Amino acid sequence: MRNPQSTRAKLPPLATLPAFSIAARTGSLTLAARELHLTPGAISRQIKSLEEALGVQLFHRGHNTISLTDAGRQYLTHVNAALATIDNGTRALLPDRVRLVIQAPITLARRWLIPRLGAYLQENPNVDLNIQSLALGASDVPDVTVTYRRGADEARFASAFLLDRTVAVCSPLLIGGTAKTMTPGALLDLPILLDTADAWSWRRWCAAADIAFQPRGGSITFDTDEASIDACMTGLGIGQASPSLIERELREGQLILLCPNINPIVGAYEMAGSTPTGLAAGFNQWLLTWRES
Hints:
By secondary structure, the chain is of the alpha/beta class. It has helices at 17-26, 29-36, 40-54, 70-93, 106-113, 117-123, 172-175, 184-187, 200-209, 225-233, 247-251, 278-288, and strands at 59-62, 65-68, 98-104, 127-133, 144-150, 162-165, 167-170, 192-194, 219-221, 239-241, 256-258, 265-271. It is 39% helix and 19% strand.
């Protein structure tokens, strides 16, 4: 009689699955390595081992970029479902769950914090997070409040976890292959997208470029940087953004850098309020681990 187990597929190396899932989510071996406290080389080797075990290619690899293949996207659905089941089962065994309320600016929450929360939850599986946008108002008293403060002097932001450097960006739909030859002055001949009425970021950028802020191609003003980034991606004009908030768009080519050597500091994100204790203090310390050296 045929042994039914002989036709059962051999399981891949299970320890490689978190690396595959996180690399797919972040689109970066470096970010995956930071979440798992490994080196990018170790993450690359784990994914290669998984691909060899499966006999399929899971990622397309480019210069400092990775993207899922069709097989990778299909497999990711099953891997994420399996990891979620294990995670839920683990959480159910924990006797004491705690809640942490975090208030943060909406763009930071969506574009910087959410992609990194998986790392925090891996280290703190008994914490239930409640993320609230400062723009929409608070429904709970926050344990952690992240605020944004303007400024051009890095020395003023010794306690900040994320410096806000601004760069000029646009959609490739707007200027195509001429991006590398654009001069700072030539940018002002194109429509300019502002994320504040006083054009703070653009004025700082122009000062760093040693030119006057005189937009000759018109301008569109938005009340949030999130809206300005969205408008920039549709090709409405030249925008300003922090590279930390548009990592995915730059990596995937939805936005391109213009005059990349001009990147002045325009502010920083930092924790507000009195000195926290307990869980809030731990979260603040975790935020600081992401600060670039």
